[in-house]
Amino acid sequence: MKYFLLSLSLLLFTTVARCQNFDDYFENKSLRVDYIFTGDDKSQTVSLEQLNQLPLWAGRRHHLGELCRQGNGQIKVTDQSTGKCIYMESFSTLFQEWQTIPEASTVRKSFENSFLIPFPKSKIDVEVLLREKDGTYNPALKHTVDPQDILIKKKGLKNIPPYTIVHQGGATDKSINVVILAEGYTLSEMGKFREHAAIACEQILAHSPFDEMRDRFNFIAVETESKDSGVSVPRESRWNETAFHSHFDTFYSDRYLTTSNVKDIHNMIAGIPYAHIIILANTDVYGGGGIFNAYTLTTTGHPDFKPVVVHEFGHSFGGLADEYFYEGDTFSDTYPFDVEPWEPNITTLVDFKPKWNNLLAKGTPVPTSVSMADKYPVGVFEGAGYSSKGIYRPAADCRMKTNTCRGFCPACRKALEQLIKFYTE
Predict the structure, then answer these.
(1) Of 3, 81, 90, 125, which sits 20 to 30 A from 395 (CA to CA)?
(2) What's residue 331's pLDDT?
(3) What is the pLDDT of residues 75-132, one digit of tens each?
(4) Contact predicate 185/228, CB 8 Å
(5) CATH number of the domain that 254 lies in?
(6) Would you report the helix, strand and coil content of the chain in percent, each value rounded to 5?
(7) Which ranges of 206-304 does DSSP label H, i.e. alpha helix?
(8) How far is CA 133 from CA 74, 244, 312, in A?
(9) What confidence tens digit (pLDDT) does each residue in 68-85 have?
């Protein structure tokens, strides 16, 4: 009995200590750090632009000093007095993607990026690490944040746009908080936006594992008003005045819809609790984009709106890679063939086993021929990450490969479930 009571006491102490860890170092507010990423295809630098305080923290309160995804970059927060790592987050950026295109060899460019971390009680050191082509992470910037700094701007205390809770799975501090924003919707079109936001939420929660874990998510539709209806299409000389200045033809790709005005996004929703962002664009032009721990941006007027918003959320929330490719195309710019990608659903076979190896049936050949997909639904099929050679995916088809597939493949489902639990348990 004494052993049982001692064990119970230790368990309770561990649980309490774990729950109190957030409060030991952080207030229930957010520190938004605005950076400028600058460089070309051979170099990159990061500069601090502005520090901001937001009224609430809506991110994770578990596994604060750990990472579930490595990302193309990482934020590391260290308590200055103890030297202890008290928070980490990973990310990808539009800038890092731009570095892989031909234009980056001819000019240097700058991109905005904003990141949220819990607001510290004491001085912290914040370090930005960027992933190199060989898969290593090197420090790009380290700076100190004093929470008493009078130049930290307080935002989100006024001019909060109207919002509606589309789905509430739980309390803000116990859930994954996702905002759905309007882009290219005028004030008179907000009824239509609310309908589209409900559809986006419904579609995401209809896919496994989101459907089984819906009680861990909150979705909030925010009516971010635009002056013009629709979004910009540069190839048609159409430039609209919208909330976030998004446009097609990103990197001269017709269907790639993004915005580089990242601070506009975060300024608009500073007073609303959020950790993940979906932006719905009011247009029937096909396209979209999803950047890990940045945002999903997709169109609502196209017939493929429903599968595309789920696919792009797989990128921005789940850190999943594209599993599609084009026959005959062999690229190693985005994913070098001699380096293992950080994304959980593609592999170059350099370090495959930690990914979906445990999902393979006994005797599954590696690599696996697509002709054997009926026998081996989970395999290692060549063709993924935009390249027909050298990169492999887990299934013949998946939501991360085509719009016609009914759901995520088993490896993607496993990765998403792992991430949801990381945030909430």
Answers:
(1) 90
(2) 72
(3) 999 999 999 999 999 999 999 999 999 999 999 999 999 999 999 999 999 999 999 9
(4) no
(5) 3.40.390.10
(6) 25, 30, 45
(7) 262-268
(8) 15, 31, 24
(9) 999 999 999 999 999 999
Match 């460019």 to its residue by tokens. Answer: 109
CA distance 380 to 374: 13
Q: What's the token pair of residue 317?
A: 């929330």
CB 316 within 8 A of CB 306: no
Amino acid at 137: Y
122 located within any domain: yes
Question: Distances in Å between the alpha carbon of 10 and those of 15, 22, 63, 80, 307?
Answer: 9, 20, 20, 29, 47
User: In terms of residue numbers, what domain contains 78?
Assistant: 23-154
Look at residue 15 and tell me whether its pLDDT is greater than 50: no
The CATH number of the domain where 92 resides is what? 2.60.40.3250
Phi, psi of 412 (to 5 degrees): -65, -40
Bond before 377 cis per omega within 30 degrees: no
CA gap 279, 252 in Å, rounded: 21
Q: Which residue has the tokens 């904003």?
A: 114
H or E, element range at 349:
none
- Distance between CA atoms of residues 314 and 292, nearest Å: 9
For 146-181, what is each residue's pLDDT tens digit? 999 999 999 999 999 999 999 999 999 999 999 999
pLDDT exceeds cutoff 90 at 10: no
Largest CA distance in the chain: 78
Can you tell me whether residue 48 is helix, strand or coil?
strand
Is residue 76 left, alpha or beta, with left meaning phi > 0 and alpha meaning psi from -120 to 50? Answer: beta
User: What does pTM read for this prediction?
Assistant: 0.93
The residue assigned the tokens 């001699």 is: 338
Q: Kindly state whether residue 34 falls inside one of the protein's structural domains.
A: yes
In this predicted structure, what is the pLDDT of residue 324?
95
